[in-house]
Amino acid sequence: MQTAISRAPKAIFTASLFTLAAISPTLQAQGAAPSPVPANAPYKNANTPTEKRVADLLSRMTLEEKASMLAGSGWMESTPIPRLGIPAIKMADGPLGVRSWAGSSAITNAAGNPVKVLTTSFPSGVAMAATWDTALVQREGQAIGQEVKALGRDMILGPTVNINRVPLWGRNFEGYGEDPYLTSRLAVAYIKGVQSEGVIPSLKHFAANNEEFERHRIDAHLDERTLHEIYLPAFKAGVQEAGVWTVMSAYNKLNGVYCAENSDLLTGILQKEFGFKGFVVSDWGSTYSTAPTVNAGMDLEMPGGPPMQAWLATGQTQAAGNGAGWLTADKVLAEVKAGTITESTLNNNVTRILRVIFESGLFDHPHPGGAEVDTPAQQAIARQGATEGIVLLKNTGGLLPLDPAKIHSIAVIGPNAAVARTGGGGSSLVKPKYAIAPLDGIRETIKQHAGQSIQVTYALGVGMEREDPTQDTPEARAKSLNEAVDAASKADIAVVIVGRYPKLEGESFDVKTMDLPAGQDDLIQAVERANPHTIVVLNTGNPVTMTKWLDQTPALLDMWYGGQEGGHALASILFGDANPSGKLPVSLPKKFEDSPAASNYPGQNLKVNYAEGLYVGYRYYDTKNVEPAFPFGFGLSYTTFTYSDLKVSHGKKFAGKVLSDQFLAILKVKNTGSRPGAEVVQLYIHDGHSKIDRPIHELKGFQRIELQPGETKTVTFTLDRTALSYWSPQTKDWVADPGTFEIQVGASSRDIRLRAPLELKP
Ligand code: BGC
Predict the structure, then answer these.
(1) What is the torsional sign of CA 298, 302, 305, 306?
(2) Most exposed residue of 217, 338, 706, 726, measured as fewest CB within 10 angstroms of its CB?
(3) Which residues does 33 contact at the CB level (< 8 Å), separation at least 6?
(4) Could you write out the three-class secondary structure of 153-166?
(5) Which residue from 232, 262, 270, 273 is spatially nearest to 733, judged by alpha carbons?
(6) Average pLDDT for 79-102
(7) Angle of CA points 275, 200, 436, to nearest 5°
(8) Which atom of ligand 1 is nearest to the CA of 205?
């Protein structure tokens, strides 16, 4: 079912539009009473093919009814047409779990908000990306789909697939990191999971929404090749491989035109190039015109109805640059009358919405709600994600894992130790029924391991910047620091959990600096001086500057924002109940100035030039020899792996199959340590002969494999021509230049263990 929309052959789609045009009413003059609908109307029959249902239903709609469908009826509801049985599509944010739909995040995140929707808080997108576990992300998508239905909703606003271009983007935590291939694989998995439940996902934000600075006004300028190679692949994969039902247009302008009225983007690329057949929903408050928006292929404006009017009426909404209320029925009808929107265009847009209503099953099987959410199975997925996503960055002298039999005391320190910082701020912040802080997780795990024999002390160390005014004074900081040093000096082990929280990292603003919040560097340094067995844990979505303390830090973990199970996950890694297997989905630069877009951020005069082009993340660091603190794909384990026997083959050589455009890379990976563990084997392509400039290598395959001590597994990658290709601005297509490529297989972008040539014949 889920692939039908995008995979419908073009010819069939075109034919169906002709049919629609033929039967569609200019017919029903405005205001004329619509004909009654018989109980056996073909569109009501679930056995009628989708395109026929849409055509039949459309033929029964008045012009007013069609126009009414292009805008929402509420904050998170599309417009229903009860006369015809067309339901409202009931939405909820996304993407890291299901959120209250009762209003903007300013309302639903407010402490006093009476509407409580308590659901599973899954790890942030970047944490899930660090698992490199597509099967798990698909299960997460499915679990979220189940929770959406259980709450009587129909659509989840996610996944977020915008690329981490700058280490300061406020929403980097929501996305899947810096690489288009990894992001694509995870996007496809998430969408398949959600759609398998008959729930509608929304692939967002289309496109080039890579900073929050002036997000409603900023104009992202980038060339066609960069757009296709870096910023569009996850959208393309979502459409072509997962058959995603909806795409959300972004707030920003792209090359001078707002994304919501950008016909090059919405019609040219999304519909014509990718073959998208579902509908485009606007981001909330991202529309600025009527005819250009409708004509560009933007189908559903959100929010709508009285909540939209009330929101727009506040001075703040418009001052921030939001636009809304442009696709109300009266405005759309006026443009149809004026001829600036043709009825056939209106039919097309409504067709795309109806198609999704049928295809998703929503028309035939509405979601009544009232079922359980945050089930043990859903919690287990959240915990697995949080655990697999933790990246072990440093482990000098094998300080980790901690042996509960040998430790008598542990000091747990930091502004993120006793509070569960589950996610960044904004429309993705889920309210869970419970959330495990690192301190809770550590205490619980110790009890399981050793009864009460390990003494745990806690010290704040430093108040979180701008959180509690009583902690934000120099005196309070000095006191907290002394207490932390005291606790650390008396304990066998110190664990310092630092990072940010929603007020410092979230939607609608960028992170001010890559440096840790006030006092946290000093805290780490002071604790490290007091205790040589210090483990630093990063609890953020974005990279942070580590130069002041990294050399002295024996052990370092990145737990990102781990959702409600973050504390359990961290404790299981600290004590070796789980073996770390997370790998960085984003390079961690030494300092902001080292990052490729630093000099082109946030832009000037509301224009940001993506002058670094393709050189985003490791494509930049590895090509231009800029050493990051930790490279893309990196992550240690408590065991070790060796790679051997890489063989690359192509053509007819395999299993009698004719695979002239397919290539196989086969290697062996062995667990050479003493613990079971998982390794993420990464495959990069190096093209040294192309006619056009290319980054030194690009990720084109990965596999997460689990190995027992001493076990060897054979890993097979199947590649096709697209893995070797670049986007040619001349031919406006993907091109692979014949010649010798190099297949690189390794454990990070800078730890290539095996290389082999691959010959592409003309
Ligand atoms: C965000 C979207 C979100 C929408 C609805 C917008 O501000 O950019 O990601 O889905 O609000 O809450």
Answers:
(1) negative
(2) 338
(3) none
(4) CCEEECCECCCCCC
(5) 273
(6) 96
(7) 130
(8) 9
Is 613 in contact with 226 (CB distance < 8 Å)? yes
Q: Which residues pair with 741 in a beta bridge?
A: 687, 758
Which residues, including other chains, have CB under 8 Å from residue 114's CB and lie 6 or more apart?
none
Distance (angstroms) between ligand 1 centre and the Cα of 302 equals: 10
The count of C-alpha atoms lying within 13 angstroms of the C-alpha of 52, restricted to the half-sphere facing its C-beta, is: 9
Q: What is the CA radius of gyration of the chain?
A: 27
Residues 6 or more apart whose Cβ sits within 8 Å of residue 594: 621, 626, 628
Q: Which residue has the least CA distance to atom 4 on ligand 1?
A: 284
Work out which ligand 1 atom sits closest to the CA atom of 99: 12
Rounded to 5 degrees, what are φ and ψ at 291?
-60, -50
Residue for token pair 């960085």: 584
Specify whether the CB–CB gap between 265 and 206 falls below 8 A: yes
444 backbone dihedrals φ, ψ, rounded to 5°:
-60, -45
Q: What's the CA-to-centroid distance between 501 and ligand 1, angstroms?
A: 19
Give yes or no: 645 in active site: no
Query: 536 near 553, Cβ under 8 Å?
Result: yes
CA 18 / ligand 1 centre spacing (Å): 35
**Of 93, 179, 219, 283, which residue is the catalytic one?**
283
Taking CB atoms and a 6 Å cutoff, what residues make up the pocket around ligand 1? 93-94, 157, 204, 283-284, 427
Least confident of 23-27, 217-221, 328-332: 23-27
SS3 201: strand
Q: What percent of the chain has pLDDT over 70?
A: 94
Q: Which of 486, 500, 586, 488 is nearest to 535 (CA)?
A: 488
Q: Out of 93, 173, 205, 213, give the residue to mutate to test ligand 1, the one with the largest number of ligand atoms within 8 Å of its CB.
A: 93
Q: Residue 642 belongs to what H/E stretch?
A: strand 641-650
What is the torsion angle, in degrees rounded to the nearest 10, for the CA atoms of residue 484, residue 490, residue 492 and residue 494? 0
Nearest residue to 717 (alpha-carbon basis) of 640, 655, 650: 650
Among 507, 508, 509, 510, name the best residue to mutate to test ligand 1's pocket (greatest count of ligand atoms within 8 A of Cβ). 507
Q: What is the pLDDT of residues 605-642, one digit of tens each?
A: 999 999 999 999 999 999 999 999 999 999 999 999 99
